[in-house]
Design brief:
- 81% of the residues lie in helices and 0% in strands.
- With 448 residues, it is mostly helical.
- The protein has two domains: 390 residues, Growth Hormone, Chain: A (Up-down Bundle); 51 residues.
- The longest helix has 31 residues.
């Protein structure tokens, strides 16, 4: 029941996150914003995730995993309520940033809670179920989101999940009894946190305006600041990120690198596929959601099975096979045009869904199994940081493509060829990402 309580909140937040992609055209029409501004809607949430995941991991060690998890759920409820006073893109982006911070608090501790509860046995299967909970939310998000948009407008995909979160919190307090914190855990590295926040902020702002020469220099400054952050972490006694320990732990660093490249590839597919189906094929949000949800439905079914298999067999074989299937799906997606049939699209999302199902739980199990149980919080945060960093980089590249190819114009039928060009370039890049991920996945070594 503790697993159910944690899983319920993971489902709700994932549902809210995936539903927003279906709402992009409706938001653009209602708030009258251009293609470039639309690309910031998912990116704003990623900023909150990337900046706060490492601090959340350290705070969970100091103050307790359950406490941080519940505070994240409460922040999600509060930020969702702000949608009732949101009438412009700036306020919407603020809501998304706060939801991103809430997501960091929930996802940065969720796997650690599950890993602690099942530390003695069946950890892979339990992590597979938790991963399935996320995928179930991702599965239902586009479908439920499309239905909500048709009934009550796009704002309902923000406030409706918050109502369910209240019930999930009751379950959590009833069945999750421990805190799993470390006695005398060190204080948070505030200097490192501010350096990371500055690096991520500068980089994202620059990538959103990369067509202007001055922002190319700003992107370089963001990369430089990230280098300063890494250097700072190597010199701190109690850093956010223990660089030397990560370098020495081959299983962990290869698992994180594989996750970074896989999730970097997946963001562009979900975001661009939702837009493609609604603009080019003229589908309703519900119809587009039904197609997009097939990928997550396959993930949800396969993850517990793959997680259970990774308790018995080497995770690298399962996750590397998943990467190969990713590559096939992305290459197929790179061939779409305005005449591409819906069955062809269905085949793509099914193949990518199988790839995800085989990759995620075994990869997470390998990462968790590479450290002692008292370090599960920070590894949970690192797994989710790898995911969100991959999403952020992919989001930044999509923003660049939108800025350069589409610019500050609305997506109208005469812009559809440019939209398809963006999809083709993004999918070839995604195929390259998962090829690199497959190499890291296989080369991580043996876990059993």
């Amino acid at each position: 029941m503790a697993l159910v309580g944690v899983g319920f909140i993971l489902i709700i937040l994932a549902m809210s996150m995936s539903a927003i992609n279906i709402a992009i055209p409706a938001i653009g029409a209602d708030l009258n914003i251009d293609a470039e501004a639309l690309s910031w809607i998912p990116t704003a949430m990623l900023w909150g995730n990337v900046v706060f995941l490492l601090p959340v991991g350290r705070m969970a060690e100091r103050y307790g995993r359950k406490r941080i998890f519940c505070l994240g759920a409460l922040l999600f409820i509060f930020s969702s309520a702000l949608i009732f006073i949101t009438h412009n893109i700036a306020m919407l982006l603020l809501v998304r940033v706060l939801q991103g911070i809430a997501g960091a608090m929930v996802y940065g501790t969720g796997l650690a809670l599950v890993g602690a509860i099942y530390a003695s046995s069946r950890r892979g299967q339990a992590l597979g179920i938790a991963t399935s909970a996320v995928y179930f939310g991702l599965t239902m998000g586009p479908l439920v989101g499309g239905w909500l948009i048709m009934q009550w407008g796009w704002r309902s995909i923000i406030w409706a999940p918050a109502l369910m979160t209240i019930l999930a919190l009751v379950l959590l307090y009833r069945f999750v009894k421990g805190e799993w914190r470390i006695e005398n855990a060190p204080a948070l590295d505030w200097q490192g946190f501010l350096l990371l926040a500055a690096a991520v902020s500068v980089f994202l702002i620059a990538m959103g305006n990369i067509s202007q020469p001055i922002y190319i220099l700003l992107a370089g400054l963001g990369v430089l600041l990230f280098g300063v952050f890494i250097k700072h972490q190597t010199k701190r006694e109690n850093p956010l990120l223990r660089i030397h320990a990560m370098r020495a732990n081959r299983l962990l660093n290869r698992s994180l690198l594989a996750a970074f490249f896989v999730y970097g590839s997946s963001f562009s597919l979900v975001f661009l596929l939702s837009i493609y189906l609604q603009y080019v094929h003229g589908l309703t949000p519900v119809e587009a959601g039904q197609i997009v949800m097939i990928q997550a439905l396959v993930m949800m079914f396969l993850s517990p099975i793959a997680g259970r298999l990774s308790d018995k067999y080497e995770p690298r074989y399962l996750s590397t096979l998943g990467c190969a299937l990713f590559a096939i799906g992305y290459v197929m997606m790179s061939q779409v045009d305005s005449e591409t049939s819906i069955p062809y699209i269905l085949a793509i999302v099914a193949i990518v869904g199988v790839g995800f199902g085989l990759f995620s739980a075994p990869n997470n199990n390998a990462a968790m199994g590479s450290v002692a149980p008292d370090r599960f919080s920070i590894v949970s945060a690192l797994i989710n940081l790898a995911r969100t960093m991959g999403n952020m980089v992919s989001s930044a590249i999509v923003m660049v493509l939108f800025t350069v190819v589409l610019g500050d114009v609305a997506i109208t039928p005469d812009q559809y060829p440019n939209l398809i060009l963006v999809i083709k370039v993004a999918m070839w890049l995604a195929a390259g990402y998962v090829t690199i991920a497959g190499i890291f996945s296989y080369r991580r070594g043996l876990t059993h």
